[in-house]
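Workshop exercise sheet. Pairs work together: one partner reads the sequence aloud, the other fills in the structure field after running the prediction. Swap roles for the next sheet.
Pair: D.N. / O.F.
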Amino acid sequence: MKFYSQSFLYDDPWSIVSLAYLLRYPNPYASHILSCDVISRDITPAGTLRTTRLILKTGSLPRWAPKGMIQRAESWVLEESEVDPLGKVMRCTTKNLDHVKVMRVEEHIHIRQAEDGKTLQTTEAFFTSGFGWGLTKKIENYGLTKFKANLQRSREGFFIILDLIRQSRRQPMTLGAPSHFLASHRILNGPDANTPAHHEVPVAHEVRDPAPENPPRPAVGGGAWTRLKSWLRSG
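Structure field:
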């Protein structure tokens, strides 16, 4: 089994970060997400919001993978989340439902309010293969490497949603309306275009085999909104 852990500190308040996480799909950096459906949602007696979603993802196999290792490139993923608005904590667990003999991937997300109104997100992921045939460690290493490589791209898409929510709080707008996207794009390219919408501060990483570099700071502001506008038009 391989294990990966990382923490990330956002300047945004918990309410915005937790909402952005629930709304992170679709975005221009998540073309591998084919569908995302809510299959249950309820309020617990403690006042927390529980949501179960079914996500369909697509991917590709490495060149060294034996022929017929899996029958199809798509994979169903179950996401279970619980939001505690009073304690300002969100917990989310995702795990694949198929191809589990080849590799089981389980990810745990913990988002909580930190000091000074900031938000701390902790990500933990476990990679376990039962494939055998001398490929178990190779498969687990591949899963870990690919997860780390995709993490920054996922964060780029997440920041776009964060920026969108921040803009929606500054002016009346409807999420997903192209006309409002264009208006927001003009605002972000105005005199204050050089002012970042948020300041990401990476926290210490805890990684087992191997240790990743600190993630680079993604581009924000007009560039992100330009990519989002182009993506909406192409769709």
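Discussion prompt: Strands lie at 2-10, 33-43, 49-58, 74-84, 89-96, 104-113, 119-128, 201-202, 206-207. What would you look at next?
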